[in-house]
Amino acid sequence: MDELEVRRRLLTDPYHLTAEQQQQLQQDPDSQQFHQDVLELDQHIKQVLSPPVPKTLENALLLQQHKHKQQQQKRFYQNLIALAASVAFLAGFALNWSFFLYGSQSLGENSLAHVYHEEPYMHHRMAALSLSDVNSKLADFDAELSSSDYTVVFANYCNFRGTRSLHLVVETEQGLMTVFVVPKENSLSFEEQFHDEKYQGRSIATHKAILVMVSDKAETLQQGEQQLLKNLQFKA
Q1: Where in the chain is the domain with CATH 3.40.1000?
Q2: 205-225: b or e for each residue (b if 16 or more CB lie within 10 Å)?
Q3: Strands 163-171 and 176-183, bridge-based pairing
Q4: pTM for this one?
Q5: Tens digit of pLDDT per residue, the chain (236 long)?
Q6: Angle between helix 3-12 and helix 29-49 axes, rounded to 10 deg
Protein backbone atom coordinates (compact mmCIF):
# COMPACT_ATOMS: atom_id res chain seq x y z
CA MET A 1 0.00 0.00 0.00
CA ASP A 2 1.59 3.24 -1.09
CA GLU A 3 1.66 6.43 1.04
CA LEU A 4 -1.06 8.16 -1.01
CA GLU A 5 -3.48 5.31 -0.48
CA VAL A 6 -2.70 5.26 3.24
CA ARG A 7 -3.47 8.97 3.60
CA ARG A 8 -6.65 8.65 1.55
CA ARG A 9 -7.94 5.95 3.88
CA LEU A 10 -6.93 7.95 6.96
CA LEU A 11 -8.93 10.90 5.71
CA THR A 12 -11.93 8.66 5.03
CA ASP A 13 -11.98 7.06 8.49
CA PRO A 14 -9.19 7.98 10.90
CA TYR A 15 -10.71 6.05 13.83
CA HIS A 16 -11.08 2.55 12.43
CA LEU A 17 -7.73 1.33 11.16
CA THR A 18 -7.07 -2.03 9.58
CA ALA A 19 -4.12 -4.18 10.61
CA GLU A 20 -2.37 -3.21 7.38
CA GLN A 21 -2.88 0.52 8.10
CA GLN A 22 -1.56 0.16 11.65
CA GLN A 23 1.54 -1.65 10.36
CA GLN A 24 2.11 1.07 7.77
CA LEU A 25 1.83 3.81 10.44
CA GLN A 26 4.39 2.05 12.63
CA GLN A 27 6.83 1.96 9.76
CA ASP A 28 6.25 5.52 8.49
CA PRO A 29 6.61 8.48 10.95
CA ASP A 30 5.18 10.90 8.36
CA SER A 31 2.00 8.86 8.10
CA GLN A 32 1.82 8.77 11.90
CA GLN A 33 2.00 12.58 12.00
CA PHE A 34 -0.58 12.84 9.22
CA HIS A 35 -2.91 10.56 11.21
CA GLN A 36 -2.45 12.70 14.31
CA ASP A 37 -3.17 15.88 12.32
CA VAL A 38 -6.34 14.36 10.90
CA LEU A 39 -7.57 13.41 14.38
CA GLU A 40 -6.87 16.90 15.74
CA LEU A 41 -8.61 18.53 12.76
CA ASP A 42 -11.63 16.32 13.28
CA GLN A 43 -11.86 17.29 16.98
CA HIS A 44 -11.52 20.97 16.07
CA ILE A 45 -14.36 20.70 13.54
CA LYS A 46 -16.57 19.03 16.16
CA GLN A 47 -15.86 21.85 18.64
CA VAL A 48 -16.71 24.48 16.03
CA LEU A 49 -19.92 22.75 15.10
CA SER A 50 -20.90 22.09 18.75
CA PRO A 51 -19.83 25.10 20.80
CA PRO A 52 -20.37 24.91 24.60
CA VAL A 53 -23.47 26.63 25.89
CA PRO A 54 -22.53 29.82 27.78
CA LYS A 55 -23.55 29.81 31.43
CA THR A 56 -25.51 33.03 30.95
CA LEU A 57 -27.49 31.48 28.10
CA GLU A 58 -28.21 28.40 30.18
CA ASN A 59 -29.48 30.56 33.04
CA ALA A 60 -31.59 32.64 30.63
CA LEU A 61 -33.20 29.51 29.19
CA LEU A 62 -33.89 28.14 32.66
CA LEU A 63 -35.43 31.48 33.70
CA GLN A 64 -37.59 31.59 30.59
CA GLN A 65 -38.73 28.03 31.21
CA HIS A 66 -39.57 28.92 34.82
CA LYS A 67 -41.57 32.00 33.74
CA HIS A 68 -43.45 29.95 31.16
CA LYS A 69 -44.33 27.39 33.82
CA GLN A 70 -45.50 30.16 36.17
CA GLN A 71 -47.71 31.62 33.42
CA GLN A 72 -49.23 28.21 32.78
CA GLN A 73 -49.92 27.76 36.48
CA LYS A 74 -51.39 31.29 36.70
CA ARG A 75 -53.74 30.63 33.76
CA PHE A 76 -54.72 27.29 35.31
CA TYR A 77 -55.61 28.89 38.66
CA GLN A 78 -57.40 31.78 36.93
CA ASN A 79 -59.51 29.30 34.98
CA LEU A 80 -60.07 27.29 38.15
CA ILE A 81 -61.19 30.42 40.04
CA ALA A 82 -63.49 31.43 37.17
CA LEU A 83 -64.98 27.94 37.16
CA ALA A 84 -65.41 28.00 40.93
CA ALA A 85 -67.07 31.43 40.72
CA SER A 86 -69.46 30.15 38.04
CA VAL A 87 -70.30 27.09 40.11
CA ALA A 88 -70.81 29.28 43.20
CA PHE A 89 -73.05 31.64 41.23
CA LEU A 90 -75.15 28.79 39.88
CA ALA A 91 -75.32 27.16 43.29
CA GLY A 92 -76.36 30.46 44.91
CA PHE A 93 -78.90 31.12 42.18
CA ALA A 94 -80.34 27.64 42.55
CA LEU A 95 -80.45 28.01 46.33
CA ASN A 96 -82.20 31.39 46.18
CA TRP A 97 -84.64 30.22 43.54
CA SER A 98 -85.33 27.06 45.53
CA PHE A 99 -86.00 29.11 48.65
CA PHE A 100 -88.21 31.46 46.65
CA LEU A 101 -90.36 28.59 45.46
CA TYR A 102 -90.14 26.10 48.31
CA GLY A 103 -88.13 27.44 51.22
CA SER A 104 -90.62 29.69 53.00
CA GLN A 105 -93.13 27.89 55.23
CA SER A 106 -95.70 30.61 55.89
CA LEU A 107 -98.12 32.50 53.70
CA GLY A 108 -96.60 35.82 54.74
CA GLU A 109 -93.01 34.79 54.00
CA ASN A 110 -93.99 33.48 50.60
CA SER A 111 -95.97 36.62 49.78
CA LEU A 112 -93.06 38.89 50.70
CA ALA A 113 -90.69 36.72 48.66
CA HIS A 114 -92.92 37.19 45.61
CA VAL A 115 -93.13 40.95 46.15
CA TYR A 116 -89.37 41.32 46.44
CA HIS A 117 -88.80 39.08 43.42
CA GLU A 118 -91.09 41.14 41.20
CA GLU A 119 -90.11 44.54 42.64
CA PRO A 120 -87.20 45.30 40.23
CA TYR A 121 -89.39 44.65 37.18
CA MET A 122 -92.79 45.82 38.35
CA HIS A 123 -92.64 49.44 37.13
CA HIS A 124 -91.74 48.23 33.62
CA ARG A 125 -94.73 45.87 33.52
CA MET A 126 -97.47 48.05 34.95
CA ALA A 127 -100.27 49.07 32.59
CA ALA A 128 -103.94 49.77 33.29
CA LEU A 129 -105.96 46.61 32.68
CA SER A 130 -109.59 46.39 31.73
CA LEU A 131 -112.06 44.82 34.14
CA SER A 132 -112.72 42.00 31.65
CA ASP A 133 -109.00 41.17 31.44
CA VAL A 134 -108.77 40.94 35.21
CA ASN A 135 -111.95 38.88 35.51
CA SER A 136 -110.74 36.41 32.86
CA LYS A 137 -107.94 35.46 35.27
CA LEU A 138 -110.08 35.67 38.41
CA ALA A 139 -112.52 33.23 36.79
CA ASP A 140 -109.98 30.42 37.32
CA PHE A 141 -110.46 30.97 41.06
CA ASP A 142 -114.28 31.26 40.90
CA ALA A 143 -113.99 34.99 41.60
CA GLU A 144 -115.17 38.18 39.91
CA LEU A 145 -114.50 41.86 40.39
CA SER A 146 -117.86 43.56 40.05
CA SER A 147 -116.48 47.07 39.87
CA SER A 148 -113.33 48.85 40.89
CA ASP A 149 -112.59 52.01 42.82
CA TYR A 150 -108.96 51.67 41.75
CA THR A 151 -106.92 50.61 38.73
CA VAL A 152 -105.49 47.11 38.36
CA VAL A 153 -102.05 47.58 36.78
CA PHE A 154 -100.74 44.01 36.91
CA ALA A 155 -102.34 40.57 36.79
CA ASN A 156 -100.49 37.31 36.31
CA TYR A 157 -100.38 33.77 37.61
CA CYS A 158 -97.71 32.77 40.12
CA ASN A 159 -96.60 29.75 42.13
CA PHE A 160 -97.21 29.64 45.87
CA ARG A 161 -95.07 26.65 46.79
CA GLY A 162 -96.63 24.42 44.19
CA THR A 163 -100.08 26.05 44.29
CA ARG A 164 -101.15 28.02 41.23
CA SER A 165 -102.20 31.46 42.46
CA LEU A 166 -102.95 34.92 41.08
CA HIS A 167 -100.75 37.97 41.56
CA LEU A 168 -102.48 41.36 41.26
CA VAL A 169 -101.18 44.88 41.75
CA VAL A 170 -103.72 47.66 42.24
CA GLU A 171 -103.16 51.40 42.26
CA THR A 172 -105.12 53.10 45.03
CA GLU A 173 -105.25 56.74 46.02
CA GLN A 174 -102.75 56.01 48.79
CA GLY A 175 -100.32 54.00 46.62
CA LEU A 176 -99.72 50.52 45.22
CA MET A 177 -101.05 47.40 46.90
CA THR A 178 -100.22 43.82 45.95
CA VAL A 179 -102.97 41.23 46.17
CA PHE A 180 -102.53 37.45 45.99
CA VAL A 181 -105.44 35.12 45.42
CA VAL A 182 -104.29 31.76 46.84
CA PRO A 183 -106.47 28.64 46.77
CA LYS A 184 -107.27 27.33 50.24
CA GLU A 185 -105.67 23.98 49.31
CA ASN A 186 -102.05 25.04 49.78
CA SER A 187 -99.15 23.84 51.92
CA LEU A 188 -98.39 27.17 53.61
CA SER A 189 -99.28 28.02 57.18
CA PHE A 190 -101.86 30.79 57.45
CA GLU A 191 -100.78 34.19 58.82
CA GLU A 192 -103.41 36.83 59.43
CA GLN A 193 -100.82 39.60 59.74
CA PHE A 194 -97.13 39.78 58.88
CA HIS A 195 -94.47 42.40 58.16
CA ASP A 196 -90.79 43.09 57.71
CA GLU A 197 -88.73 46.30 57.78
CA LYS A 198 -90.34 47.53 54.54
CA TYR A 199 -93.69 45.84 53.91
CA GLN A 200 -96.67 44.79 55.94
CA GLY A 201 -99.40 42.39 54.99
CA ARG A 202 -102.75 40.94 55.94
CA SER A 203 -104.47 37.68 54.98
CA ILE A 204 -108.22 37.04 54.82
CA ALA A 205 -109.66 33.55 54.39
CA THR A 206 -112.80 33.14 52.33
CA HIS A 207 -114.70 29.95 51.54
CA LYS A 208 -112.90 29.65 48.15
CA ALA A 209 -109.47 31.21 48.57
CA ILE A 210 -107.18 33.26 50.75
CA LEU A 211 -106.67 36.93 49.92
CA VAL A 212 -103.24 38.24 50.83
CA MET A 213 -102.64 41.99 50.66
CA VAL A 214 -99.19 43.61 50.89
CA SER A 215 -98.19 47.27 50.89
CA ASP A 216 -95.45 49.54 52.24
CA LYS A 217 -98.05 51.91 53.76
CA ALA A 218 -100.56 51.09 56.50
CA GLU A 219 -103.21 53.45 55.10
CA THR A 220 -102.89 51.88 51.64
CA LEU A 221 -103.41 48.44 53.13
CA GLN A 222 -106.40 49.56 55.19
CA GLN A 223 -108.25 51.43 52.42
CA GLY A 224 -107.34 48.87 49.76
CA GLU A 225 -108.64 46.00 51.84
CA GLN A 226 -112.02 47.69 52.36
CA GLN A 227 -112.41 48.42 48.64
CA LEU A 228 -111.34 44.90 47.64
CA LEU A 229 -113.77 43.17 50.00
CA LYS A 230 -116.58 45.40 48.75
CA ASN A 231 -116.06 44.61 45.05
CA LEU A 232 -114.56 41.10 44.88
CA GLN A 233 -117.09 38.26 44.90
CA PHE A 234 -116.54 34.49 45.03
CA LYS A 235 -119.02 31.99 43.65
CA ALA A 236 -120.85 29.87 46.18
Answers
A1: 107-234
A2: eeebbbbbbbbebeebbebbb
A3: antiparallel
A4: 0.56
A5: 666 666 677 667 766 777 777 777 667 767 767 667 766 676 767 666 666 656 666 676 777 777 777 777 767 767 766 676 665 545 444 444 444 444 557 888 889 988 888 888 777 778 889 999 999 999 999 999 987 677 899 999 988 888 899 999 998 888 899 999 999 888 788 889 999 999 999 999 988 899 999 999 999 898 888 888 888 898 87
A6: 20
Cβ–Cβ < 8 Å for 154, 169:
yes
What's the CA gap between 8 and 51, in Å, rounded? 29
CATH code of the domain occupying 107-234 = 3.40.1000
Residue in 146, 155, 210 with CA at minimum distance from that of residue 182: 210
